[in-house]
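Contributing: when you submit paired examples, paste them exactly as shown. First protein:
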Amino acid sequence: MEIKTNQIPALEFRNVCLSFDEKQVLSDISFRLERGEMIFITGESGSGKSVMLRLAIALEHPDSGQVLIEGQDVGQFNEVKLLKLRGGRMGMVFQEDSLFTGLSVFENVAFRLEEHGIGATEIEKQVAEVLKFVGLDEKAEKLPAELSGGMRRRLEIARALVGWPSIMLFDEPASGLDPLTSHKVLDLIIRARDVYGISSIYVTKKLDEIPYLATHYARQTERGTTIEAAADGCTPRTRAMVLEKGRIVFAGSVSEFEASTLPAVVRLTHAENGTVISHFETTDPWDKSRRPRERIL
């Protein structure tokens, strides 16, 4: 029986294992990212979260198992096909700053398109569109050093979003930002997810980001795009996963994550436990009263 394209998951891990220097980093990882879905991955430092993203975009390859992008095993791709994959269907926002300091805002965003032979007219169009989307259209000629921390992070997102890939990978994209700037970044991610139907994996240790992303959506109005709290039964398609020592120890809905009594989850959701994420701004990241009011973007 022929499988319809829209029934094939955007991304799938099948029994993936990976070791570095004989130390096992990931063990028997299996999951599916469905089209239009957002999966939150959290866990303590060193649990394997960032490595999973590098495997997803084929910057690393598993020792065993398969990573499939839209039904295709990336382990079978040659370098040309891998570059085409990263340049077209996938985008990634890295945790660390990866901007080209000697290139302007425009040139940073255009770089990936130029690498893949896109014509100058189309590059101009696509870069202008994504810079407007992230609110940097008036900063196109600036260098990264002339931007604030929040603007640089938005530029990182613009570079990943240019061409509107169908799959996005986010590695702690709001890390190190002040609360107001963090929420602006989260709103950009919500807009990209909902307006463009992007499937995404979102890695974070800041647990207060998860309920916000899971309960807010972007809505188009005559005045523009607004970020609104979703009504019951109309929330975005999201799930949560917890990694511990390279294994998936929890997978379920965000509400199930919130209520879980599994020790690996409790260590993350209770700030007083002294773990690596006990520096959260609030001892209760699930406090609904902390959600920002609706904003028009």
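Second protein:
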Amino acid sequence: MTDPARLKIFSGSSHPALAKAIAQHAGVPLGALRVTRFSNENIKIKIDENVRGCDVFVVQTSASPLSDHIVELLILIDALKFASADRITAVLPYFPYARSDKKDEARISITARLMADLLETAGADRVLTMTLHSPQIMGFFRRPADQLLATPILKEHFRQGDLSNSVVVATDAGAGKIAGHFAKRLHLPMAVIDKRRVDDSEKAIGVDLIGEVKDKDAIIYDDEIATGGSIAEAARILRDFGARKVRVGVTHAVLSGPALERLRDAALDELVVTDTIPVADEKRRALPNLKVLSTAKLFADALTRIHEGQSVSAMME
């Protein structure tokens, strides 16, 4: 059974609403702390309650201003470590620098690995995250790490409607594995968009489609939406190939740069994301077909299992 006296959940400033919801589902109050930002941009964090011998979870996602939130997380973990917390788990709904997972250019940093090293150095004993951009990131950790998937949350949403004429679509071959997992969970067929670079620009264009979408309801499934280019291009080619509806389900709503304009112009029938990243009110107003699903209960169940020494992977099975 969960011991409320030993289980502590603290929130950084990146997504306090999600941290509060996780704590409510876990049945414990949020831990008390004070964050002071000085005029020289230094940060001081004071833990305002006793954490000696406690099992502590720190919730901090990757959201703007990203660098400030990374430093705040490291300082918070360090403060808890030297306040004699027994174990510290960094709960990172959207892992920082998740796309920087390989050395695809000379003389660059594999920054996702650096983030894993910094968390360990700061004092994190383990990491809990959701839907990494590449599974290989799990290999960057030298401490225990658990990856949750938003598949159960998104699956339940789409199952509320009629799926008899639906097909799951991967935006490219690289997204095929995650989209295939989703299609299997929903017992649906799958299609994959063939994207090519047709000139010297960096923009990839959909040129073909593997699978059948004509007169069907297409559900594009991916791990994140950043600038919206892949989703908009996928929606275009699906319409060209005769899809009746185009719906989208993704985990991380980064929505950076021209994303809002691109997604509006894509005329999507539905855009479903989770709250691993806070979605500002102006973004919600700009995208009337946007629906944000909560991950709080899934994270609360996972951290409760970690606290009680139970399997987290069993949740995903």
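If you have annotations for the second protein, write them as plain sentences, like these:
The domain at 151-293 is CATH 3.40.50.2020 (Rossmann fold).
The first strand starts at residue 7 and ends at 11.
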